[in-house]
Amino acid sequence: MTETAQHGPLTGLRVLEIGHFVAAPFCTRILGDLGAEIIKIEPPQGDPVRQWGEQIDGNSLWWSVHGRNKRSVTLNLKSAKAVEIVLGLVEKCDVLVENFRPGQLARMGLGDDALRAVKPDLVIAHISGFGQDGPYRDRAAFGVIGEAIGGLRYLTDHAPGTSDLPPVRVGVSIGDSLAGLYAAFGIVSAVWQRDRVKGDGKGRTMDVALTDSVLSMMEGMLPEYGALGKVRQPTGSRIPTAAPSSAYPSSDGRWILIAANSEPLFAKLASLIRRPDLLEEPKFKGNRARVENVVELDAIITTWTSQLTIVELENRLTTADIPSTQVYSAAECATDPQFIHRGMVREVDDELLGRVLHTGIVPHISDNPGTIRWAGPSVGQHTNEILGEFLSLKPDDLASLRAEGTI
């Protein structure tokens, strides 16, 4: 790994991203936040995410975060010269991350064998919808497909019989992001095995599927079905295994989340709502009984919450030390003192947008924290810089490549 100024625990790790949309770029954003040097290869028109979400003067606000800490190189990968350039960059990198369909890079001349011919110890992370093998290997997939086939979309819905609307989406591209996180974890694991004291110096290949990533998060869903034949059902706001734990209405039209599902917490809640008699009711004694009678229990709690404003509810529940919160929108997240204190909401200077709010860096590492060094760059902003630095291409060379549409 190369030696550079310290920007986090992954300083010195150089990663080449040939990714688009969400999963691979999310993976490299996490690595970049923790100090890795990220070189992102984009088509001349840019990553499609640059056109997603709200924009200012044609510049995506999401991209400001999604592309941060990366240097952008534009390449037309259909060009033979572009393939040569990629292989030249690979020779200078530790890791390659991609999320094309299985086999697509190989058809371009960038299969694992070609990559390792120039960099034998390269760590390669393939991220795809269904994985690099299996009967669904070649099927098209985005995050929403992974969420559906992995069981998440079935469970993120209202309880059976309460709504005829389609199953509810989580609200963000969670399937893509989960796959990106797993890939980042796998990359760090592979680099550790390669480079640690008495490491083997070998490159490794990982295969991360969106569908696998979602399914792995499904708690007891599979064992419950395998052992009991039970299909876990959606429960709306409730947790199917613990009660009370749900969202309850306030008098001013807001929602308060209350999680009082342990015995001490339920006792505190019963006292707070002035219903100590609930503790003596057999149908509310113990978590299992409360889950079985959750509809009646939630109705009792709702009677109390619906008489108080959201601020009154938060104050009383916090004073009683009961886990609770109002349901935050972007406005509440942006002004929350805890998020601000921990740097999870921070202002960043963006060359394209001015001052922009970004989420902070996770995890918080005390002695060598990651940094936001810059916001998402413009398309191809670093093409000349990277190709000159790593491949020693001269201005005339770059001008020729640009004229013929390679960069």
Write up this protein.
- Keywords: Transferase.
- This protein has 407 residues and is of the alpha/beta class.
- The chain folds into two domains: 14-217 and 340-403, Rossmann fold; 245-249 and 255-326, formyl-coa transferase, domain 3.
- The protein is 38% helix and 15% strand.
- It is built from 18 helices and 13 strands.
- It has helices spanning 23-33, 61-66, 80-90, 104-107, 112-118, 143-149, 152-155, 174-195, 210-215, 221-228, 263-272, 287-292, 294-305, 310-319, 330-335, 337-341, 383-391, 395-403; strands at 14-18, 37-42, 55-56, 59-60, 70-74, 95-98, 123-128, 205-209, 245-249, 255-259, 324-326, 345-350, 354-359.
- β1 (14-18), α1 (23-33) and β2 (37-42) form a beta-alpha-beta unit.
- The protein is elongated, with a radius of gyration of 25 Å.
Give keywords.
elongated, 407 residues, 6-stranded parallel β-sheet, alpha/beta, 13 strands, Rossmann fold, formyl-coa transferase, domain 3
Category by helix and strand content: alpha/beta
User: What is the second-level CATH architecture of the largest domain?
Assistant: 3-Layer(aba) Sandwich
**How many beta strands in the DSSP annotation?**
13
- Tell me the helix content: 25-40%
The overall number of domains is 2
Task: Give the biggest sheet.
Answer: 6 strands, parallel
Mean pLDDT: 96
Q: Shape, please? A: elongated
Query: How much beta, percentage-wise?
Result: 5-15%
Name the CATH superfamily classification of the largest domain: Crotonobetainyl-coa:carnitine coa-transferase, domain 1
Q: What distance lies between the first and last C-alpha atoms, to the nearest angstrom? A: 27 Å
* DSSP helical segment count: 18
The neighbouring-strand order within the major sheet is: 5-2-1-6-7-8
C-alpha Rg (nearest Å): 25 Å
Name of the CATH first level of the largest domain: Alpha Beta
Would you identify the regions where 5 or more consecutive residues have pLDDT less than 50? Answer: none
The CATH topology label of the largest domain is: Rossmann fold
